[in-house]
Specification:
By secondary structure, the chain is mostly helical. It has one domain. The longest helix is centred in the C-terminal third of the chain and has 32 residues. It is globular and about 50 Å long.
Length: 216
């Protein structure tokens, strides 16, 4: 789990510090890649020797991302909240239904939390990471550094706590459910709580300021 979450720090950082849409898109690609690697472990015995489908599948995913980036961007810009939630829930369900396990529920849990978080952010928070590039000099560096350090510090604490919870309940019949919920908590921090804190600390702007003020 540690390696998989370390793998996810790149799209998380992009979401916080560079461009929220690009961060979401890369998170989806990375999660699919992690899922493919985990799934490969269960079917590798049936594959002829010398053929490593993990890298083939990951290459296909990244290639698909290149060609589907514009349609996905259009969906994120114009799609409804119900569509986001349904798509995220369906994808998360498909990720875990074939071979449920602590490893395979990781991408599913994070994906569902990400879909929920994106909807909440778009509707109520309005976090916009790219606004920092309007600033110059030391101010931009300090803001980006603050976002990264705050986000990663809390993420590290949550991950450590999640690992302890999963270990404590490893013998439970509901371990997969607990793991799934724990990974959703990680995703909730990344895509909802951290952006909200950044805005409150004036480390980020909002893309629909009038609507956010009305909600407050």
């Amino acid at each position: 789990m540690e390696l998989a979450l370390l793998f996810m720090t790149l799209p998380f950082s992009i979401y916080w510090c560079i461009n929220e849409k690009a961060g979401i898109q890369l998170s989806i690609v990375f999660l699919l890649s992690i899922w493919v690697v985990f799934l490969y472990r269960y079917v590798s015995e049936q594959i002829p020797a010398g053929i490593d489908l993990r890298w083939i599948a990951i290459a296909v995913i990244f290639t698909g991302f290149i060609f589907l980036r514009k349609p996905v961007d259009s969906l994120l810009s114009k799609g409804g909240y119900r569509a986001y939630m349904f798509t995220a829930a369906a994808a998360a369900f498909l990720m875990i239904i074939y071979r449920p396990g602590v490893e395979t529920v990781l991408p599913g849990g994070i994906l569902l939390g990400m879909g929920t978080g994106y909807c909440l952010n778009k509707k109520y928070i309005g976090f916009k990471s790219s606004d920092v590039f309007q600033k110059k000099g030391i101010a931009k560096i300090l803001i980006l550094s603050a976002r990264f350090l705050i986000g990663m510090a809390v993420l590290a604490v949550i991950v450590i706590r999640v690992e302890n919870i999963i270990q404590n309940f490893s013998g439970s019949q509901n371990i997969f459910l607990y793991s799934f919920l724990c990974y959703m908590v990680i995703s909730f921090w990344v895509f909802v709580a951290a952006p909200w804190i950044f805005i409150k600390l004036r480390l980020a702007g909002v893309y629909n300021e009038q609507k956010i003020q009305e909600n407050e």
